[in-house]
Amino acid sequence: MEPVFVRHSKPQKKSLPKTKFGIPGLDSILSGGIYQGTLTFIEPDSYSKHYISFARCFLGEGATNKEKLFVYMNQTIDGFIPPVAKQSKSNPSKMRIAWRYEGQVSQTAVDEKHYDLTKSINYPHIHHPASVPDLYTQIYNDISNSLDSSTDTTHKRILILLPSISSEAAQLNSFLASLRALVRSIYAVCLLISEVPSDPLLSFTLLKNIDFGMKITDFDDKTDLGEYCASLSITKPLSLQSLGNFELRSLNFGIVREPKIIDVSNFTTPPVGGVGKSALEY
């Protein structure tokens, strides 16, 4: 009896193009960045507000690449977008490297861009929501009005920074599902930063609708993790049809924060007697 179906070769893994997030270490961990057409969620930290630096680097990468930026937050922050940091090729990041990886820095690190978080540049495509319930309508109208023509293919980045997105489950599901469909249709990248709702149903609705989730957790002053001031945990690995972050070897990473720049790296055990780093206030 002959088999009904014979697979002669492995199915090819379909893939969407990626775009850099804007933090070299995170882009390296994600093997090139985040997929276009996806919704990324970050649950912010409580004290040092490293998520602000993540948001700024996300926008800095877009501004550097001359993308159209759409920013939505319920507070006004002047000078939100940082410029590229000036760095020498011999010391591209000026960041202290984990002791175990000293001497193992790849040559490709020279080409990575860091952003100077102590400075800012002006950028025209900044928007603020009139009200949260009408947020999707405003996003849709802002993007439609920004199109130069029906064939405008300029890359777009959407940042939504809200302290909380508490709402009825049906309203939240409708908003996130519509937002994700919009991001898919124009191959944009969207970063949503908000607290996870305490209501289990709202929390489930949020996690169901995002494509990729991360959480930032501050370390206190007594930590023995040396250079690391916070951790970045993957709360929802990317799962989009046949796509997946199969290259992720860990779900927990360390955040290194210097006065000018921020980066993400694999956790390494510091030397015995390593001194913890205090959380930065900014």
Automatic annotation (TrEMBL):
<dbReference type="Pfam" id="PF05625">
    <property type="entry name" value="PAXNEB"/>
</dbReference>
<protein>
    <recommendedName>
        <fullName>Elongator complex protein 4</fullName>
    </recommendedName>
</protein>
<keyword id="KW-0963">Cytoplasm</keyword>
<dbReference type="InterPro" id="IPR008728">
    <property type="entry name" value="Elongator_complex_protein_4"/>
</dbReference>
<dbReference type="GO" id="GO:0002098">
    <property type="term" value="P:tRNA wobble uridine modification"/>
</dbReference>
<dbReference type="GO" id="GO:0033588">
    <property type="term" value="C:elongator holoenzyme complex"/>
</dbReference>
<keyword id="KW-0819">tRNA processing</keyword>
<comment type="similarity">
    <text>Belongs to the ELP4 family.</text>
</comment>
<comment type="pathway">
    <text>tRNA modification; 5-methoxycarbonylmethyl-2-thiouridine-tRNA biosynthesis.</text>
</comment>
<dbReference type="InterPro" id="IPR027417">
    <property type="entry name" value="P-loop_NTPase"/>
</dbReference>
<keyword id="KW-0539">Nucleus</keyword>
<dbReference type="GO" id="GO:0005737">
    <property type="term" value="C:cytoplasm"/>
</dbReference>
<dbReference type="GO" id="GO:0008023">
    <property type="term" value="C:transcription elongation factor complex"/>
</dbReference>
